[in-house]
Design goal:
Blueprint (H helix, E strand, L loop, with lengths): L2 E4 L37 H8 L16 E12 L8 E11 L4 E7 L4 E7 L2 E3 L1 E3 L3 E10 L4 E10 L5 E5 L5 E5 L20 E10 L3 E4 L2 E7 L4 E12 L6 E4 L2 E9 L2 E9 L4 H7 L3 H11 L10 E5 L5 E2 L4 E4 L10 H9 L7 E3 L6 H19 L1 H17 L20 H18 L1 H14 L3 E3 L1 H12 L4 H7 L7 E11 L2 E10 L9 E9 L3 E8 L3 E8 L3 E6 L8 E4 L17 H13 L20 H13 L8 E2 L1
Parallel strand pairs: 2-12, 18-19, 19-21, 22-23, 24-30
Antiparallel strand pairs: 1-17, 2-3, 3-9, 4-8, 5-6, 5-9, 7-8, 10-11, 11-16, 12-15, 13-16, 14-15, 17-18, 20-21, 24-25, 24-31, 25-28, 26-27, 26-29
Helix pairs in contact: 3-4, 4-5, 5-6, 5-7, 6-7, 7-8, 8-9, 11-12
């Protein structure tokens, strides 16, 4: 299914790997994760994006309306890595429509670099700058709906967003990596995710190097000055932070996925030295594309491709149609879960993009849950459960960090924290439990169809799921998305019997401080001598007790056996005093009298019933009266609370 080829090289009886002799000066160093000793709040994929947060300008919800709507970016960049001061020479064209009456100034996000000149509709234009923005005088006023085009010519060394570095093999690597707000550091733009546009990337690089970008490759031109120009075109709407360029002396691996009647090209651009390992590490990508297409929507960018390009970002980044890959290539598929995560972003993050980074969980929580879904599909329920258990461990370890904030609009420090990724995944898992598989997966499809090639926020996601399922999800979203933390549960159980009737009592106590009460369905597996069965209760109180009457001896009770609820749960001793039959918290003669009346006069059992089983032999009988009298009058053995759970 795979075949391998090298750009500008010859294949003779297999793969020929050529090592470049180029040696270029490195520019600004990229953000990089510590692979060996990560802080507990983050895991490897999140670290790389977190490194960009030092330049975070705002994470609050964005206004969906602004002065103009960008319809297309055309980025024409020439990389000159040997230049000490002008490594990137750019010409960006912004095609846009006014969204207001009387638009006379185009305000673009742009930091650093030197602007040489600007044009509006091919005529020279006056411009000014602040530390964070470029102001282009449009020369006239544009009414709502009127179109115009602006060109910005610039040069310099980006202070971030685009990096000139080298890999461990000594080969130069140049790449962009901008989430959340670093696109403005290498090209002028409206650098917020709620204005998606089409994009063309024209990248000129030293001969012998290959430039990868979004969409389809339309042409490759070998220039007289020993450079090569690559022309890429993305025909689907794209957010600025998803526009990418990666450059290296790549080897190329080609395969494909089949989605209904479409054949989707799947391509990997990797360092030649890692090419054999990449075949194994990325082997299941086509199968993942086919699986996600089946449970969600067909691969969102037919006619383009799906690809991965190696770079030095210290993690991975879901650039549209072209994931940037910075993980090691061990050749044993140990990072297959990351492949699934980044691929899932093509649906959740790229097809449907969060309208602002306050809603980033709609990207990252969804992609993280996709990791678990792939485990479930490919390796079975145990692998699925283990993946969720690992997430849960991350969440518990971050209880004093990101998890003490809601996953919606977290503080900027935790924009790419454990809560957004791992708790976000668990929120989807619990939503699946609440809705059932049919409503959940079909509801996700409806959400994707409603906001395809556009943006959405949490409220719109909730509305889409409610519209499909017919369920009111306000309570669910209020406590799991807009509130912090998770339930901390102490639970306990006990049982006893009278004759052939068996009495089970269960106690639940929520211990978290905020919110005081999570209202949630809790599933139990009850085992008796006859059978195992599942039952669910709705836990709605800080302290809650429930009882069951059964016709078969009880052999076990398991809390949340199918792992549907995010909670720190501890099995504790049943919090009730044996022998306190009247519930007044003290043991008196009246309790013995009450026990006699239960046995001989049909008095009702106490709550819990096991309080009457004071000798702990799993049944209420005359023996308990004798035991109770001996304890009360003769300092006999301590009372026992029925059969402990």
């Amino acid at each position: 299914m795979h075949w391998l080829r090298r750009r500008n090289s010859i294949i003779l009886g297999g793969l020929i790997l050529l090592i470049s002799s180029f040696s270029f000066a490195a520019g600004p160093q990229p953000p990089e994760a510590d692979v060996t000793d990560l802080a507990p709040e983050y895991s490897f994929p999140e670290e790389a994006k977190t490194a960009n947060l030092g330049r975070l300008y705002q994470a609050a919800p964005a206004d969906s309306a602004h002065d103009y709507d960008v319809t297309k970016y055309i980025l024409d960049v020439k990389l000159v890595p040997t230049s000490p001061t002008n490594k990137l020479r750019g010409h960006t064209t912004i095609q846009a429509k006014s969204q207001i009456s009387g638009l006379s100034t185009l305000v673009l996000d742009f930091i650093g670099m030197t602007v040489d000149s600007c044009k509006v509709n091919s005529s020279s234009a006056i411009f000014t700058r602040s530390s964070t923005q470029l102001f282009v005088d449009l020369g006239t006023s544009y009414g709502a709906g009127s179109s115009f085009s602006a060109d910005v010519f610039y040069h310099g060394n980006p202070v971030g967003g685009f990096y000139f570095t080298s890999n461990s093999y000594g080969s130069p690597v140049y790449y962009s990596f901008t989430e959340p707000y670093d696109s403005r550091l290498w090209f002028p733009c409206y650098d917020w995710p709620n204005d998606k546009a089409r994009c063309e990337v024209i990248c000129t690089v030293p001969a012998g190097y290959f430039a990868v970008s979004n969409g389809r490759l339309y042409s490759v031109t070998n220039n007289p000055d020993t450079t090569t120009t690559y022309y890429w075109k993305e025909n689907y709407q794209i957010a600025t932070y998803l526009i990418s360029v990666t450059v290296c002396d790549y080897a190329q691996i080609d395969t494909y996925a089949v989605v209904e009647t479409d054949t989707i090209p799947v391509q990997y651009w990797v360092y030649p030295q890692d090419s054999l390992e990449a075949v194994t590490d990325f082997k299941k990508t086509p199968k993942m594309i086919e699986y996600f297409s089946d449970i969600w929507l067909n691969y969102p960018f037919p006619g383009d491709k799906y690809s991965m390009a190696q770079a030095e970002l210290g993690g991975a980044m879901e650039h549209q149609t072209c994931t940037s890959w910075g993980f090691p290539m061990p050749g044993d598929a140990r990072y297959e879960w990351v492949v699934a995560h980044e691929l899932a972003h093509q649906w959740w993050g790229d097809l449907v993009t969060c309208s602002d980074f306050a809603n980033i969980w709609l990207n990252e929580g969804f992609a993280s849950y996709a990791e678990a879904l792939w485990q479930e599909y490919e390796y079975g329920p145990t692998a699925f459960k283990n993946h969720l258990i690992a997430f849960e461990g991350n969440i518990f370890a971050s209880r004093f960090g990101s998890v003490k904030y809601p996953i919606y609009n977290p503080p900027s420090t935790y924009l790419f924290g454990t809560a957004v990724y791992k708790k976000g995944a668990w929120v989807l898992h619990m939503l699946r439990y609440l809705l059932g598989d049919s409503n959940f997966f079909n509801g996700m499809q409806a959400y994707g169809q409603s906001y395809a090639y556009s943006t959405a926020n949490t409220e719109q996601f909730q509305t889409a799921i409610e519209g499909y399922s017919g369920m009111d999800l306000d309570l669910f979203f209020n406590q799991w998305v807009y509130s912090p933390n998770y339930p901390i549960l102490n639970w306990s159980w006990t049982y006893t019997s009278i004759g052939t009737t068996y009495y089970l009592d269960v106690n639940l106590n929520q211990k978290q401080t905020t919110p005081l009460v999570f209202k949630l369905p809790l599933e139990f597996r009850l085992s008796t001598l006859v059978k195992d069965s599942l039952f669910t209760i709705l836990d709605t109180l800080r302290n809650q007790h429930f009882s069951m009457v059964l016709k078969s001896p009880i052999t076990g009770l398991v809390f949340d056996p199918n792992y549907w609820v995010l909670s720190a749960d501890t099995l504790t001793a049943y919090p009730y005093r044996a022998g306190d039959l009247d519930g007044n918290t003290i043991i008196v003669l009246n309790d013995i009298i009450y026990l006699v009346n239960i046995l001989f006069h049909g008095f009702p059992l106490p709550v819990p019933a096991a309080a009457a089983d004071v000798n702990g032999d799993c049944k209420v009988s005359l023996g308990d009266v004798v035991y109770f009298i001996n304890y009360f009058f003769h300092s006999g053995p301590q009372l026992k609370l029925g059969c402990p759970g």
